[in-house]
Structures are given as C-alpha cells and as structure tokens.
C-alpha cells in the first residue's frame, strides 16, 4: 500500500513537471501573441502584415467568377480576340457572333477602355454618385459572366496562387449548376400548383415536387449530371490545384431569380452532382435576395431544399439568407428568411445572415442555430458595400455572444477587390472585444464547418494547428530577439 502511494506521488510529480515544462509553453506563446496583437490592434498596416502571415484555414463563402480579377478577364479577351460593346462594355468570347457596335478587342483595345471595363465589373474607383452599391455590385456579373467559363483552369490557378500567398489552405468555391436540356410538358401546370395561394398547402406542394422530381429523373437528368461531373473533374485535374498545402472543392448553385421549375431543375442537378462526385461538396442558392421573383418564391425554394434533403440526406448545403437590410424591402419581409432557411430548408450554414435582428423570433432562432451548430459565413466588405451595414450595426457580435459558430469569408474577392487578410483586419479593428485566441478559434471554424469529408477535414485541421504553432513560434522568436 505504502509503495503504491509513493508510486502515485512520483507519477503526480512527474505529470506536474511535464505540465509545467511542456504543455504551457504553447499556451504561453499564444498568450504572448495575444499581448503583441493588442499592441498592434489599431495599426492597420501592422495588422495586414500579421494577418497575411497568420494561417487562415478556409474561405467557405467564395464565388468562382467573382474571385477572378477583371485584369484576367481582360487578358483572356485580348488573347482570344474576344468581343466588346464599347458603349455598354459588355464582352463576349471570340466564338460568339455580334454586329456593330460590337467590335473585336484587337480593333479597340486601349488602356482607357480597359480601365472603364475594370470599373464596370468591380468596385474599382466606385463612387456612390454613379448609382446604388447593390445595383452596381450585382450588375458586375453580367459584365464578366460570358468570359468566366472560357478558361476555368486559369481562373482556379489564379485564386489558388493568391490563397497560398496569404496562407489560406482551403477554398470552397461556388459555381453555377449547369442547366440541362430537359424540358417538362407539364411544367406550367406544376408551377401554378406550387405558387400563389397554393403555396400554403405544404402537403400539396410536396406532392407536386415529387412529381417534378420523378419526371426529371425519368427524362435522364442523372446522365446529364454524370456527364457534367466528368467534365468538371477533368477541369479540376487540368488545373492541378490540389497539393499538399492547398485544397479546392466546389459548391454548385441555383439562381433564385428564375422560374420555380428552373430553380428546382438546377437544385436537383446540384444535389445529384454532390451525391456522385466527391469534388462537389455542397449546394447553394444565389443572386439578390430582394429580387421580385426570389422574394415571391422564397418559401417555395426552402420547401424545395427540404424535399431534396429527403432524397439526398448526405448532401450538405449553405444558403444565402438574410442578405438584406432595413429599407431594402418592406419590414415584414425581413422577418423570416433566416428562420426558414434553418427551420424549413434545414441549411447547415447560412451565408450573410445580416438581417437577423429583424427576424420574428430572433433570440429563439439564435439559440436554435447555436444548438444545431448552424455556422454563419460573415462577409464584412461585401455587407458594407452592398447593404451599407458595418461596425456596430453588423450582427457579428450578436451571433458571437449567442454562441452561433462564425466563419470569416470573402464572398466575391475580385469584384470587391479584397482578400481574406483584409477581412481579418476589419474584424480586428471593428470588434476589439475579440482577442487573438478568439480570432484563432474563428479560423479553426473555417475548417470545422467546411463541407469536407471527415478524414480530409481532420487532416486539414492537423495542418492548421501545426501552421499556427509555427506562426506563433516564429513571431515570438522575432519578438524575443529584439
Ligand atoms: Zn455570396
């Protein structure tokens, strides 16, 4: 008995020494980084250097075409002798047919035209006098969409290189789901039975959705999707973006400002693709939430997602919801988008979530999101530009204090001419109550709440932890050498 005691005491002593010498070192380093971080908190250039070097995990809210700089689109148009309309600055690739005033870029290309194009398709030199920010932002897409798919591997490589340079190790980029040639003869009748007053009969809507689903499957949507997946995989291999430090995965999206059957067809395509291709890890719903059609059909879209979830329970989806601000729509229309995305559609993540405080049952909804771990993708630059919501008016801290998981993301980094580093600088300067350790936890969230499969997620988390260890050790070595 006595020997056992002695053995226990020795073991305890050994553990105590170990705890004192080994384990706290990393903790002490993190604490020292905390102190350093507070010293540079109000110094944006120092914060930029700090956050550029800091490992940032993933960017989970990232639109493919909005992440490629206008300069690249211009170069693609120039090299391929694409088209431009000098009056509207709309562009097209060489294969298309256009009449005057459209001209080939080789006939017109000049630096002033290029600058005008860059202003048209991004926030470059934007001045509020030229029109509302949201209209300008969403109009940029028409300016580059025809060129966006011309050379996808080049686009993927562009933002991969940029990601590596700022220590981002994962991107989950959103691309439009392809449309299929399948058209249904009963489409108009089915649309009628899902809209207007019929919407309130959820059982009947569900029944109609089942019919549309069966018809699309019968007409061969699965084959069309398989063909698309093979092409997408090939592009991914050609681009050669995945390596030991960087991983790229895709979400496929449907445009919510389209007719109900079109939205459904794209959503089904996206779900089917995500179920058969491991590179496609999720589904999304995009384009302005305050559009006439997207407002009208919002609840129907949420019901479509619930229905598709029953067919594809393993497919994950994030929904743009609550990308609205007071004054954009009538107040009663600000009260239900996030709650329906969570409660009806069952989204695993929410994009933006800016109008949460206007939700009818706001505090209960926050509790539910915290309990279900529904992460919110925070896009500070985007919300400032499109919604004019920033600083204390932004609900970031409201989510944070209610324990709703948050991830920091860019939305459309090239249109907004920003990067993930700048999003962290804004976070640190605008929300001084968030200490370095807490910001570090938000970075970790960007992998934890990604749609990566468990084994890859674990691998990415281990890499991230190691990268943080090295980042902090290097910073402290530098500080102590001074
Ligand atoms: Zn977005």
Topology:
Layout: H1 2-21, H2 23-40, H3 44-53, E1 58-63, H4 70-79, E2 83-84, E3 91-92, E4 103-104, H5 105-108, H6 111-120, H7 133-148, H8 152-165, E5 170-176, H9 187-192, H10 202-218, H11 221-239, E6 247-255, H12 260-276, E7 280-286, H13 292-296, H14 298-311, E8 316-321, H15 337-343, E9 349-352, H16 362-372, E10 375-378, H17 380-387, H18 396-401, E11 406-408, H19 420-430, H20 436-448, H21 454-481
Parallel strand pairs: 1-5, 5-6, 6-7, 7-8, 8-9, 9-10, 10-11
Antiparallel strand pairs: 2-3, 2-4
Which labels suit this protein?
eight-stranded parallel sheet; single chain; 11 strands; 2 domains; alpha/beta; 21 helices; three-stranded antiparallel sheet; binds zinc ion; 482 residues
């Amino acid at each position: 008995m006595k020997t056992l005691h002695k053995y226990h005491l020795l073991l305890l002593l050994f553990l105590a020494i170990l705890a004192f010498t080994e384990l706290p070192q990393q903790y002490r380093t993190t604490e020292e980084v905390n102190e350093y971080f507070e010293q540079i908190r109000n110094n944006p250039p120092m914060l930029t250097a700090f956050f550029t070097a800091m490992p940032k995990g993933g960017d989970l809210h990232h639109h493919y075409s909005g992440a490629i700089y206008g300069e690249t689109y211009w170069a693609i148009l120039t090299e391929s002798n694409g088209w431009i309309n000098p009056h509207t600055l709309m562009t097209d690739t060489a294969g298309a047919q256009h009449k005057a005033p459209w001209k080939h870029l080789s006939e017109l290309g000049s630096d002033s035209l290029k600058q005008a194009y860059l202003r048209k398709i991004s926030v470059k030199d934007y001045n509020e006098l030229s029109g509302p920010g949201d209209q300008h932002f969403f109009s940029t897409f028409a300016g580059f969409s025809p060129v966006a798919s011309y050379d996808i591997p080049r686009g993927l490589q562009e933002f991969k290189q940029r990601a590596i340079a700022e220590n981002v190790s994962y991107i989950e980029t959103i691309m439009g789901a392809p449309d299929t040639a399948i058209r249904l003869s009963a489409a108009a009748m089915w649309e009628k039975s899902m809209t207007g007053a019929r919407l309130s009969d959820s059982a009947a809507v569900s029944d109609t959705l089942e019919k549309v689903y069966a018809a699309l499957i019968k007409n061969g949507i699965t084959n069309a999707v398989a063909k698309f997946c093979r092409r997408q995989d090939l592009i991914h291999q050609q681009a050669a973006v995945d390596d030991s430090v960087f991983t790229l995965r895709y979400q496929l999206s449907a445009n919510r400002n389209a007719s109900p059957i079109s939205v459904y067809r794209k959503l089904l395509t996206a779900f089917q693709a995500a179920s058969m291709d491991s590179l496609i890890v999720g589904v999304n719903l995009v384009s302005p939430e305050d559009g006439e059609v997207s407002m009208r059909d919002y609840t129907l879209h949420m019901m479509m997602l619930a229905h598709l979830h029953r067919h594809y329970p393993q497919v994950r989806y994030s929904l743009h919801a609550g990308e609205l601000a007071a004054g954009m729509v009538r107040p009663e229309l600000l009260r239900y988008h996030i709650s329906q995305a969570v409660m009806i559609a069952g989204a695993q993540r929410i994009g933006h979530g800016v109008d949460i405080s206007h939700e009818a049952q706001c505090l209960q909804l926050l509790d539910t999101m915290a309990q279900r771990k529904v992460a919110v993708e925070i896009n500070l630059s985007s919300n400032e530009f499109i919604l004019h919501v920033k600083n204390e008016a932004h609900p970031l801290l409201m989510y944070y204090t209610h324990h709703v998981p948050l991830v920091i993301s860019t939305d459309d980094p090239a249109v907004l001419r920003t990067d993930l580093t700048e999003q962290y600088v804004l976070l640190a300067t605008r929300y001084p109550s968030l200490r370095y350790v807490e910001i570090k936890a938000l970075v970790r969230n960007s992998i934890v709440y990604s749609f990566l499969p468990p084994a890859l997620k674990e691998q990415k988390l281990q890499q991230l932890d190691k990268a943080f260890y090295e980042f902090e050790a290097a910073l402290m070595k530098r500080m102590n050498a001074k």
